[in-house]
Structures are given as structure tokens and as C-alpha cells.
Amino acid sequence: MLISLIVPCYNEEESLPFLYNALCDVRNEESTYGFEFIFVNDGSSDKTASVIKDFADKDPDVKYIFFSRNFGKEAAMFAGLQKAKGDMVAIMDADMQDPPSLIPSMIRSIENDEADIVASRRVSREGEPRIRSFFARMFYKIINSMIDVEIADGARDFRLMKRQVVDAILELSERQRFSKGIFAWVGFRTKWIEFVNTERVAGQTKWSFWKLFKYAIDGIVSFTTAPLRLATYVGFGTALAGFVYLIYYFIRAIILRIYNEVPGYPSLLCFILFIGGMILMALGILGEYMGRTFIEVKRRPLYIKSEESEE
Ligand code: UDP
Ligand code: MG
């Protein structure tokens, strides 16, 4: 039985030696299995590439894919999944925030047929800015209220999957990938293991606030059309309010004969601004989906390889 461990790496020259050692420990512990370590270098600008090549020179279990530029973690994970040959496949971060020491217990769970996927979630968000945790929680609340499958709060991409599950994931050929959603969407029996967040072993996080915000919008828009419906509801509500207001004025003026002495300039301005805002919002939402359709129909590859290890 072969186990593939996929590691997306973007500027991780400092963390990789720690991770590699930890992976070797796992390999020694689980000596009944064969292992392959797949490092996907996502266009790093530091020495990540040469660090990976050093591993590969010494260790035949190390495989790699280098991207021609930074294509993002989603693309890196996908490339790794495509390359993986294992009967079980795991994805993990390079910075040791996904503890490699959990892998043996994940393997046990699949061996005992408790689940097809062993996924991990963080129970605390220590070592992370408060504001980021707050927005992350909000994101999960919002997206889960809109979609049919449940995306667990704190779920990591760190997971061990059976071959069957990997094949299902590779079958989803969409360009804009939102893995947390895709993992939930393909189904299968999932066992959750929980762990406490640890700080990255070295280097810097690659996520800025703006990048996370875009990620959140991508997640929602690529997984549900509920916001389109929201635009419809809001539009309907505004129109209804306008209509009620009209009737009110009609009754006041024609029946009760009350006229406004003060010209209704401020209220008019409010309404114009409000309705204008609503229209822009609806257009914006439409635009998001239009843009996405545009990118999907271009059918561009998710990533370009510049180099790859031999089989
Ligand atoms: N990563 C990547 N491409 C990117 C950004 C990140 O392959 O464009 C990798 C990164 O090297 C790490 C993992 O994705 O292995 C998670 O990144 P990071 O630790 O920065 O995210 P955080 O843990 O802060 O959510
Ligand atoms: Mg990290």
C-alpha cells in the first residue's frame, strides 16, 4: 500500500527542513507502508526549489512539481492530487501547522474502516489575529446558511483520503476551485479529528486580509447562486416599499387633502441613493457570476509546470 503526502509550498525554505524530518519520522513509524512525498513549489521566490531538489537527490520517495509562477494553494493542491499515486493521499501545509504526528492515527482510522476521509479541524485559533478569527467565523456562518452541504468552521485542508475520494475530487474540473467546498460536496464518510492551533514553525503567513476577503467571496460565489436570489429579494422588497409609500401619499393628498409645504428634497435624495445602491449591488452580484462564467469557459489549465520529477 502506498501513501502519498502532498505539500503545497510557497516561499517555505525555512519550514521545509523541519517538515521533511517530521515526514521521515512518520515514514519510519509506518514502515508497513510505502510513501511518496510530493512537494509542489508554487512559484516561490526564495530557495524553496533548491531545498526540494536536495531532498529529492537524497531520497527517492521525494517527488516534486514546480510551477512557472505563483498559482495559489488551490492549484498546488490540485497538481499534487493529480500526481499522487497512493492508495491513501494526504494534503498538508509546509509550515507544520498541520501536525505530521497526526498522520499515523489518521491511517489507523482508515485501516479500521471507520471512515473514507479523516479530516482535521482546529478547535482554537490561538496565535491568529482576533480580527481574522472573527471574520473567519462570520464567513462560515454566512456560507453555511447559503449552501446545501456543511463546511465545518475551522476545517483545514489537512486530511487523509482514500483513492476513491481523490478520484472523485479530480473529476470536478472547475477552474475556480474552493477546496473546502469541494471536499464537502463530494461526500463520503468523514471522521473529524480536532487539534489545537500552533504557530507556523518559520517564515510568514501568505495570507493578507485582502487575499482572505477575496478567498471568502470566491468560496461563496463558486459554490452557490444564493446571492443572486438575495438580489431578487432585496429588489422586490425595495419596490414594494416604494409602492406602499406611493399609496400612502395618494391617500394623504387625495383623500385626507394633506399637502407637504416643505419640498420633499431630502427624502427624495434618500430614495434615489437607496435604490441606486440596490441596483448597483444586484449588478455587482451578477457581474461576479458573469466573470466566473467567463473564466470557466476559457478552460485554461489551473497551473503551468516548469519542472517535474520523474516517476
Ligand atoms: N501556499 C501555496 N501557495 C500560495 C499560498 C500558500 O502553496 O499562494 C501554501 C503555503 O506554502 C503553506 C500553505 O499553503 O504550505 C498554507 O499557507 P499559510 O501557512 O501561509 O496559510 P495559513 O496557515 O496562515 O492559513
Ligand atoms: Mg500556515
Task: Provide a concise account of the structure shown.
The chain is an alpha/beta fold. Helices cover 50% and strands 16% of the residues. It has helices at 16-29, 48-58, 73-83, 103-111, 130-146, 163-171, 179-186, 209-221, 226-255, 265-298, and strands at 2-9, 34-41, 62-67, 88-91, 117-122, 155-162, 190-195, 305-308.
Helix content: 40-55%
* Number of self-contained structural domains: 2
Strand order of the largest sheet: 7-5-6-4-1-2-3-8
Low-confidence stretches: none
CATH superfamily of the largest domain: Spore Coat Polysaccharide Biosynthesis Protein SpsA, Chain A
Q: Report the β-strand fraction as a percent range.
A: 15-25%
Describe the main β-sheet briefly: 8 strands, mixed
CATH class of the largest domain: Alpha Beta
Mean pLDDT across every amino acid position: 84
Structural class: alpha/beta
CATH domain fold name of the largest domain? Spore Coat Polysaccharide Biosynthesis Protein SpsA, Chain A
Number of helices: 10
Instruction: Write down the Rg.
Output: 25 Å
The CATH architecture of the largest domain would be Alpha-Beta Complex
- List SSEs in N-to-C order: EHEHEHEHEHEHHEHHHE
What binds here, in terms of ligands, is: uridine-5'-diphosphate, magnesium ion
Distance between the termini: 17 Å
Number of strands: 8
Keywords for this structure?
311 residues, alpha/beta, Spore Coat Polysaccharide Biosynthesis Protein SpsA, Chain A, 2 domains, 8-stranded mixed β-sheet, 8 strands, binds uridine-5'-diphosphate, binds magnesium ion
